[in-house]
Amino acid sequence: MRFNIAFSFTALDQFAPLARAADEHGFHSVTCSDHVVHPRELKMPYPYTPDGSRRWEAFTDWPDPWVAIGAMAAVTTRLRFTTNIFVLPMRNVFGVAKSVATAAVMSNNRVAMGVGMGWSKDEFELLEQPFAQRGKRADEMLE
Predict the structure, then answer these.
(1) Across 16-29, average pLDDT
(2) Which of 39, 60, 116, 127 could form a disulfide with 85 if both were Cys (CB 3.0 to 4.6 A apart)?
(3) Burial class for 33, CB neighbours closer than 10 Å (0-12, 13-18, 19+)
(4) Which backbone phi and psi does 75 adopt, to 5 degrees?
């Protein structure tokens, strides 16, 4: 059996100490959630609550998962890291490839990327990416 810890909604200053403890106590992996921005008010309802409201405070920390993974990899030796999930189609494919490759090399290949299409049209608009074509875009990016 493998045990994983999700670091969603965890304070940034706790990532490295928690990763170190997980590594020392035999956990298999850590997951990092992903959002780039969260507008103060959502134009689109959050699809995973009955009333469309967020399950977190508007100013919750959402660190860049690849930077966080790099920092945690530097203080661990065997713990694996993955994204839960990484919203691929709202980003530039070359920037993503560089970030993931850098994290992979620096962690001795202890990374994996869980990918999702994203639900927030607001984020796509702010990052100047087409929301309606996100599935097709992700397929092309993964290829």
Answers:
(1) 98
(2) 116
(3) buried
(4) -110, 10
Which tokens hold the place of 61? 């920390």
Q: How far apart are CA 143 and CA 114, in angstroms?
A: 15
State pLDDT tens for residues 64-105.
999 999 999 999 999 999 999 999 999 999 999 999 999 999
Can you give the pTM of this predicted structure? 0.90
Q: Closest Cα partner for 34 from 107, 99, 79?
A: 99
3-state secondary structure 63-79: CCHHHHHHHHHHCCCCC
By the 10 Å C-beta count (0-12 exposed, 13-18 middle, 19+ buried), 143 is classed as: exposed
Tokens of 106: 């620096």
- Residue 129 pLDDT class (50, 70, 90 cuts): very high
